[in-house]
Specification:
Blueprint (H helix, E strand, L loop, with lengths): L41 H18 L3 E9 L13 E3 L4 E7 L5 E7 L2 E8 L5 E10 L1 H6 L3 H4 L2 E3 L3 E3 L5 H4 L7 H22 L1 H31 L21 H14 L4 E4 L3 E4 H17 L5 H19 L19 H11 L3 H14 L6 H13 L1
Antiparallel strand pairs: 1-6, 2-5, 3-4, 5-6, 7-8, 9-10
């Protein structure tokens, strides 16, 4: 469902798979479904958003993103605190290529990232190194990492972090075309099933929450592994020891949540692995769960991505069985979400006719007759009658 990207921790499970699931109607709870043909589903809008971000990002200029800062050996950071430093960026790199005649030759190309020195202003003295990665512009603003989520102080850079929008934003950016394609296929095959069960707004809350829980599990495991590394304590299997600046991108935590929710609702549904191998959806979910746990415990390739998959899967399994928790997700948006408790309370307050207003209308009828009522007064009286 996903594709591994350079330095990105959302990678592929073995052989990056695509799955198909039969279309069926689901019983309540929930409202609506995929909607009329004239109205796009939430699944369609998520796919459109991911594709649009990827396409637009392809036309925007890429930028060098500073990731990790290190102090040069022998440099006392306290002695140079307060002095001006210059953060340089890698501009070009040398690559060895084979020429048409078979000879190997060096070629200078634009840098895709790498290390650059940090020097004291007005000197050539290097006091540290800063690692960069070349990223598409929107990707650089939206990717998630432990360092971006928490507030941290880096030498020469200062305090950074608390960029909370990334916990949602990373779900809409992808590393390359294959990464995007596999994720959107997974969303296409499974998303409509869960949206039909939940309704549009609860489904959107469900999808985003699964992605958020994927990022949070990654964050907790990475923070634990990094703490052990700093304290020079023995490694504990299951913790993530990759650099806390490693970017996390992709929709697959949310998609894993959707798939595991579908496995809970319809465990015996037949799916086609690689479009060829038939198996029960429950079997596929168990296989993917086992692979993710195994990869995280043995610190295998893309352990961080599999940790995010696990977080999304657990959230999907839980929330599909406890859908009442989804109602309040958009409360902060106020009246935008009609399923939220806050929105319902506001509507009740707004729609409930005031007793004094009812008395005034009744007095007007007695004095002038019912024909004297305005349309607004008639509607108010009608609502009061229904509520009574």
């Amino acid at each position: 469902m996903v594709r591994r990207s350079p330095r990105s921790t959302f990678g592929a499970h073995p052989g990056g798979t695509t799955m198909g699931v039969e279309s069926r109607r689901w019983r309540e709870p929930g409202q609506g479904g995929l909607g009329a043909l004239s109205s796009l589903s939430a699944t369609a809008w998520i796919i459109i958003a991911c594709v649009a971000v990827f396409v637009v990002d392809g036309f925007l200029p890429a930028r060098m993103v500073p990731l990790e800062v290190s102090v040069a050996p022998g440099v006392n950071i306290e002695e140079i605190r307060g002095k001006q430093v210059v953060l340089t960026e890698p501009v070009s790199m040398t690559r060895v290529e084979r020429m048409p005649d078979g000879r190997l030759a060096e070629r200078t190309v634009p840098a895709m990232g790498g290390d650059a020195p940090i020097v004291l202003e007005g000197t050539k003295t290097a006091v540290g190194t800063i690692s960069y990665q070349l990223m598409p512009l929107l990707n650089s603003w939206l990717y998630f990492s432990t360092a971006k989520a928490l507030i941290v102080e880096q030498p020469f850079v200062g305090w950074t972090g608390l960029e909370f929008w990334r916990i949602i934003g990373f779900q809409f950016v992808h590393a390359d075309v294959n990464h995007l394609l596999f994720n959107m296929l997974g969303l296409f095959f499974f998303g409509g099933v869960i949206e039909h069960y939940l309704g549009k707004k609860r489904y959107l809350a469900f999808y985003l929450l699964c992605g958020i829980f994927g990022a949070l599990l990654y964050l907790v495991l990475n923070l634990g592994g990094w703490a052990l590394h700093l304290l020079k304590l023995p490694a504990i299997p299951g913790l993530l020891f990759n650099d806390p600046t490693t970017p996390l991108v992709g929709a697959s935590a949310g998609i894993f949540g959707i798939m595991f929710a579908a496995a809970r609702l319809a465990p015996h549904t037949q799916v086609l692995l690689f479009f060829v191998i038939p198996m029960k959806l429950r079997t596929l979910a168990i296989l993917l769960l086992g692979w993710a746990i195994w990869t995280v415990v043995r610190a295998g390739n893309n352990a961080g991505g599999e940790a995010a998959h696990l977080g999304g899967a657990v959230a999907g399994w839980y929330f599909i069985g406890n859908t009442h928790h989804l109602h309040g997700f958009f409360d902060f948006l106020g009246r935008v979400d009609p399923t939220s408790r806050a929105g319902a309370a506001r509507r009740a307050r707004r729609q409930a006719p005031d007793n004094a207003e009812i008395d005034r209308i009744l007095a007007k009828i007695q004095a002038q007759g019912i024909g004297s009522l305005t349309r607004s007064e008639r509607e108010t009286l009608s609502r009061a009658s229904r509520d009574a």
